[in-house]
Task: inverse folding
């Protein structure tokens, strides 16, 4: 009898322990499941507010002219130069965006130009174990956008940070699916910063479906970086860890969509550029402001298989003679004075205009066959001159350029384009024309 009672007590105790253990296990599973569900819910919430996109280009070019730096100085010596080829990644860009809610958003753009940079410090066995800096690949890596914005209304959005300056058609529409040529249109890309981005404050909005606007407050450009063939292209760059802002500027753009399938746009830039430096400037340059004004008009039309785009830009730089004199005051070797100046004459006026016209032959298909593909045959012409007006114009006549291009774009979908193009850059005598053949493939879009 005692043995039986002892056995029954053992069985009851064991079952109690098993039941208790099972209940604890179930509770633990519920806790883990609940935590997992919470984690998944949080991840889904973050993912729903995160945007990822970008664009990129891979290009092959054969240039049937000399690329020697003296080809404009001594054109006769380079008239019959053997052609040369290039492979390149002009731009590979990653865009990230996040919607915090309640009208607050963040955006950023990281760009790798020409494949980025590859450099390293190595120990050279043949040089007594010395440390050497090795540059394995050229290119640039830049944070081209980083901004935070607050949307009060669709017509009133305040943005601050590193922002794109939408002056000209190319800066406002610089992704590779927004132009036909393999490389970006040359006129605006050579005369102005491209893609033009600076730290500043922006007020933007879309009051209705027909109008869109943006007004910006920025630091001025640096006239020390202006040049004969590039005008103010490098003026937005800085050798320092910050952008000097002794002078300020404003930029504005307005877009109209009143006519279906047509965009009409105008933009303006105005600011001072001289003394936007850390150098000490004497009284000899009192009254020199380097005021820069840029006015642009551009349009885009896409309907009935016809795609047409065009632009006209004109810029005036005040005190260009004084700026040229100042930039040539310093030694030409940066190791002696650390100057970023090109030590070149600067024009007082620069101008560019151009247009491209294409026809989508796939638009002739029946609507039932329309799968989003496009096959566009196009032609483009553009003119640009960094010294449209200048005291030094006769010595720098090669800055006047006319470029013709014909080619084809095939788009298997709206985010991808394959391009082929023959172009010819024409100069006045005695300079040699510059023909080339280019192939490229590019993408542009949002993955999420």
Result:
């Amino acid at each position: 009898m005692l043995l039986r009672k002892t056995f029954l007590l053992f069985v009851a105790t064991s079952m109690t322990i098993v039941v208790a253990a099972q209940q604890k296990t179930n509770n633990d599973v519920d806790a883990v499941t609940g935590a997992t569900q919470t984690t998944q819910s949080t991840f889904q919430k973050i993912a729903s507010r995160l945007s990822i996109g970008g664009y990129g280009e891979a290009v092959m070019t054969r240039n049937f002219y000399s690329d020697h730096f003296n080809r404009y100085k001594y054109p006769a010596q380079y008239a019959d130069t053997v052609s040369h080829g290039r492979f390149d990644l002009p731009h590979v860009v990653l865009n990230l965006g996040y919607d915090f809610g309640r009208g607050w958003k963040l955006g950023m753009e990281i760009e790798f130009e020409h494949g980025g940079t590859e450099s390293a410090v190595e120990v050279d066995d043949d040089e007594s174990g010395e440390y050497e800096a090795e540059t394995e690949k050229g290119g640039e890596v830049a944070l081209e956008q980083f901004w935070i914005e607050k949307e009060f209304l669709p017509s009133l959005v305040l943005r601050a940070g590193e922002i794109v300056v939408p002056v000209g058609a190319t800066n406002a529409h610089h992704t590779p699916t927004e132009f036909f040529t393999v490389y970006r249109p040359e006129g605006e890309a050579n005369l102005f910063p491209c893609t033009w981005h600076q730290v500043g404050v922006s007020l933007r909005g879309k009051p209705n479906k027909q109008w869109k606007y943006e007004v910006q407050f920025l630091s001025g450009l640096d006239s020390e970086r202006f040049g004969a063939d590039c005008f103010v292209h490098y003026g937005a760059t800085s050798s320092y860890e910050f952008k000097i802002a002794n002078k300020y500027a404003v930029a504005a753009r307005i877009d109209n969509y009143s006519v279906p399938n047509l965009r009409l746009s105008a933009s303006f830039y105005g600011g001072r550029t001289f003394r936007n430096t850390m150098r000490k400037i004497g009284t000899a340059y009192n009254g020199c402001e380097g005021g820069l004004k840029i006015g642009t008009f551009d349009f885009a039309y896409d309907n009935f298989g016809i795609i047409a785009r065009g632009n006209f830009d004109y810029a005036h730089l005040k005190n260009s003679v004084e700026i040229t004199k100042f930039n040539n005051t310093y030694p030409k070797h940066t190791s002696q004075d650390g100057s970023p100046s090109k030590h070149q004459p600067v024009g007082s006026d620069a101008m560019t205009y151009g247009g491209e016209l294409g026809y989508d032959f796939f638009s002739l298909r029946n609507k039932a066959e329309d799968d989003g593909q496009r096959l566009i045959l196009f032609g483009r012409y553009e003119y640009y001159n960094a010294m449209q007006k200048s005291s030094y114009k006769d010595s720098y006549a090669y800055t006047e350029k006319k470029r013709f291009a014909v080619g084809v774009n095939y788009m298997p979908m709206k985010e991808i384009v394959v391009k082929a193009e023959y172009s010819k850059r024409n100069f006045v005598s005695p300079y040699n024309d510059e023909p080339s053949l280019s192939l490229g493939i590019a993408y542009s879009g949002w993955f999420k």
